[in-house]
Amino acid sequence: MNLGEKLKLRRKKSGLTQEQVATEMNITRQTLSNWEVDKNYPDIDSIISLSKIYNLSLDELLLGKIHFKGESVMSKKLSVEEIKTLIKTHYPDASNVKELTGGLASQTYLFEQDNDRFIFQAGNLKGFQKEKFIDNELKTILPVRHVMEIHQTDDKVVYSIAEFIEGDKLFDLNSQQLLDIVPAVLQTFETLESIEIDKEGYGYFDSTGNASYPTWIDFIKAAYNNDIYNWSSLEEKGLDSDVVKNAIQELKSHISCITSTKKHLVHGDVGSYNLLAKDDQITGIIDWSLALYGDHLYDKANLLFWNEDKLQPLIKEVKKKYITSDETKEVIYCYMLRIGLEEIYNTVILNEAGYDIEWVANRLNEISKGFL
Question: Which Pfam families match (predicted)?
Answer without folding.
Answer: APH, HTH_3
